[in-house]
C-alpha cells in the first residue's frame, strides 16, 4: 500500500515557484534541442524570466519549443535555497551572492530529490522493518539542506547518494518481490531501450532504474510494480500501459512521456493535461 497521496510531509518537496528567485531559470544551462528552442548558459537568466522571477511565457512553453521547462522538478529546492539558505535575500538585490546561490541550488535540488524517494519508501508497508533507518537518513538529508551555503558546497554528494541508494535498493527489492513471488525479481540485462518496441511487453516487477526509455513504444505494456527511479521516459508512448504500484516514478517523468486516459498510473500521480487535450 502506498500512502504517498496523503503524505503532508511531501509538500515542502514540491516546487513553490512563488517563493523562489527563478533559480532553475537562471542557475541551470540548457542546450538547443527537441526540449529547448535556444541555448542558455548556466548562471545566466533566461530571457523569458521577468523581473518578478516569474516566467513570461509560462502558459505557452510547449508552443514555444520549451517542453524541457515543463518537465523540470526542483523538489522544493528553489524555495528552500531562496527562503532558508539565503533568508529571502534575492540575487538581483544582492548580486554578490548570485554565483554562490547558483552553485548551491543544484546540490540542494539533488538532496531534495533523495528526500522525496526516502519519504516514498517510508510510506510503504513493506519497508516497516527498516523505517528507523529511513527516518535517520531523512533527518540527515534534511539537516544537510539547512546548512550554510559554505557547508552545502562542501557536501560529498556521491557518498550521500550511496547511503541513500542502499535503502532505496532494499525498498525496490521488497516491493518488486511482491509481484515476482514465484520467480526471482526481474533485473533487466540492458538499460538502453531508446526507441525500442516494447509494445505489450511483460515488464511487471522489473528493475528499470535509470533505464533509457526515450521514445520507446510501451503501448499496452504491463509495467506494474516496476522500479522507475531516474528512468528517462521522454516521449515514451505509455498509451494503455499499466503502471499501477510503480515506485520512484515522479510526475515530471510522466509529464515527459506520451499517454492518454487509458494509461494506468500509481494513485499519487495525475494524468497530465496535455495527454487528454
Ligand atoms: S522559458 Fe520560462 S520556465 Fe523556461 S527557463 Fe525561461 S523563464 Fe524559466
Automatic annotation (TrEMBL):
It comes from the Bacteria. Pfam families: Pentapeptide. PANTHER family: BTB_POZ DOMAIN-CONTAINING PROTEIN KCTD9. This is Pentapeptide repeat-containing protein.
Amino acid at each position: 500500500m502506498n500512502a504517498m497521496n496523503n503524505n503532508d510531509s511531501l509538500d515542502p518537496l514540491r516546487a513553490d515557484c512563488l517563493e523562489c528567485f527563478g533559480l532553475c531559470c537562471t542557475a541551470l544551462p540548457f542546450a538547443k534541442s527537441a526540449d529547448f528552442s535556444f541555448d542558455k548558459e548556466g548562471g545566466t537568466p533566461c530571457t523569458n524570466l521577468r523581473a518578478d522571477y516569474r516566467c513570461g511565457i509560462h502558459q505557452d512553453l510547449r508552443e514555444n519549443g520549451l517542453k524541457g521547462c515543463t518537465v523540470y522538478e526542483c523538489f522544493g529546492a528553489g524555495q528552500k535555497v531562496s527562503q532558508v539558505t539565503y533568508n529571502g535575500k534575492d540575487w538581483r538585490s544582492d548580486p554578490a551572492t548570485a554565483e554562490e546561490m547558483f552553485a548551491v541550488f543544484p546540490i540542494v535540488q539533488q538532496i531534495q530529490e533523495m528526500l522525496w524517494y526516502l519519504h516514498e519508501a517510508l510510506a510503504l508497508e513493506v519497508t516497516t522493518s527498516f523505517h528507523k533507518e529511513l527516518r535517520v537518513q531523512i533527518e540527515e538529508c534534511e539537516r544537510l539542506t539547512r546548512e550554510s551555503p559554505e557547508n552545502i558546497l562542501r557536501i560529498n554528494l556521491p557518498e550521500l547518494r550511496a547511503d541513500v541508494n542502499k535503502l532505496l535498493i532494499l525498498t525496490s527489492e521488497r516491493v518488486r518481490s511482491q509481484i515476482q513471488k514465484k520467480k526471482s525479481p526481474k533485473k533487466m540485462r540492458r538499460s538502453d531501450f531508446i526507441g525500442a518496441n516494447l509494445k505489450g511487453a511483460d515488464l511487471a516487477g522489473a528493475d528499470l532504474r535509470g533505464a533509457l526509455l526515450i521514445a520507446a513504444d510501451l503501448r499496452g505494456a504491463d509495467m506494474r510494480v516496476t522500479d522507475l527511479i531516474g528512468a528517462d521516459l521522454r516521449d515514451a508512448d505509455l498509451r494503455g500501459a499499466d503502471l499501477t504500484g510503480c515506485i520512484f516514478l515522479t510526475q515530471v517523468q510522466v509529464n515527459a512521456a506520451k499517454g492518454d486516459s487509458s494509461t494506468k498510473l500509481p494513485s499519487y500521480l495525475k494524468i497530465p493535461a496535455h495527454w487528454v487535450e
